[in-house]
Design goal:
Number of domains: 1
Strand content: 25-35%
CATH class: Alpha Beta
Shape: globular
Pfam family, one: DUF4387
Mean pLDDT: 89
Largest sheet: 4 strands, antiparallel
InterPro entries: DUF4387
Low-confidence stretches: none
Helix content: 10-25%
CATH architecture: 2-Layer Sandwich
CATH topology: Alpha-Beta Plaits
Radius of gyration: 14 Å
Structural class: alpha+beta
C-alpha cells in the first residue's frame, strides 16, 4: 500500500504566525512550481478545506496565491483573541500542523 503524502512533503516550509491579535496567517513555501501547482489549485485547497481543518467559517478564510514565489498564504480569524484566557498558542506558531499534514490529492511522484 502506498504511503500517504502530505503538503509537508512538497513544501520547503509550512509556517503559521500571528497576523494581529485576531487573525492567524499560514504560509506554504513550495519547493518548486510543480508543488505550487498542486497546492494552489482551488479544487484542492480552498476556504471549505481550511474551514474544516480549523473550525472557522469558510467566508472568513482568505487565500492568496503567489505563483511568482511558489507561495500560498492563508489567513483566518483566531479561534480566541491572542493572549486571552483560553489562548493556548499565543504566537500561533503551531497552527500550521493540520495544514502541513493535509493529504495530497491522488498519487504524486
Amino acid at each position: 500500500m502506498p504511503e500517504t503524502r502530505t503538503i509537508a512533503d512538497l513544501a520547503l516550509e509550512v509556517r503559521s504566525k500571528n497576523a494581529g491579535p485576531f487573525w492567524v496567517t499560514m504560509e506554504l513555501f513550495m519547493r518548486d512550481a510543480a508543488g505550487y501547482t498542486i497546492v494552489a489549485d482551488p479544487g484542492y485547497l480552498n476556504a471549505t478545506v481550511i474551514a474544516g481543518l480549523y473550525g472557522v467559517e469558510p467566508d472568513t478564510v482568505q487565500i492568496f496565491r503567489i505563483p511568482a514565489l511558489d507561495v500560498v498564504k492563508i489567513s483566518f480569524p483566531r479561534p480566541v483573541p491572542q493572549g486571552s484566557l483560553r489562548d493556548r498558542d499565543i504566537h500561533a506558531g503551531q497552527h500550521h500542523v493540520p495544514l502541513a499534514l493535509f493529504p495530497l490529492p491522488g498519487p504524486v511522484t
